[in-house]
Amino acid sequence: MAELMGPRLYSCCNCRNQVALHDDVISKAFQGRNGRAFLFSHAMNVVVGPKEDRQLMTGLHTVADVYCNDCREVLGWKYERAYEETQKYKEGKFILEKSKIVKENW
Ligand SMILES: [Zn+2]
């Protein structure tokens, strides 16, 4: 039963712009501004805003808000820099809020 299916994706909740691949999920155990959030190794079709230092639960990070490049909905943020050694693995990775993305092809 080989079925040809596209990759499992996450899309913007607002305009269905495809923003991330399920295969790029690193962790589903993150905390966003409004509840659960997922950590992704890549995101696509997004705009990264200006960098700013933010004190998070896990220490000081340089982060940038991530917007849908279509409707400009804020979807999450990107970790540009982590100052704590244990948090370095998050650098260059994307947080997308679970409430802002919807599943496609599942
Ligand atoms: Zn959108």
From TrEMBL:
Molecular function GO labels: metal ion binding
Record carries keyword Membrane: no
Domain named Yippee: residues: 8-105
Key word Metal-binding present: yes
Pfam families, per database record: Yippee-Mis18 (PF03226)
Keyword entries, A-Z: Metal-binding, Zinc
InterPro entries membership: Yippee, Yippee/Mis18/Cereblon, Yippee_fam
PANTHER family: PROTEIN YIPPEE-LIKE CG15309-RELATED (PTHR13848)
Family according to the record: Belongs to the yippee family.
Name of this protein: Protein yippee-like
Provenance organism: Coffea arabica
Organism lineage string: Eukaryota, Viridiplantae, Streptophyta, Embryophyta, Tracheophyta
Gene: LOC113702687
